[in-house]
Amino acid sequence: MDKIKLRGLVDGKWEFYVLPEDAGYIAGRIKQKKLKLLLQFTGLLDKHGKEIYVEDIVKTDNREGVHKFVVKYENYYCGSLGAFVFDTEEDVSSVHCEATECCEVIGNIYENPELYLETEECE
What is the pTM assigned to this prediction? Predict the structure, then answer.
């Protein structure tokens, strides 16, 4: 069975978990009402080797220009196919491994909401 890596926001700090090993611990944190947020690792790293999680904000800088995107998980074909995507109000593009070589995690929508409002094309 593949392991699923997650990060959770507890008392303003990130904790990291691996499923299925940490399932009981996560359930306890939820029951204690300490776990406020749980986000999945995409399995991808940015150009600096930083892990990319769902709802991170990434900046890409390539021959097409500089853009900011929010990382999302999308279901396709009635849920039979899923993909992590870079999302803005105007565009959704699939995340391919080679695409991460030109992207950088600059925050997430919870700790950096001001960046979330700027997720359209950069000046």
Answer: 0.78
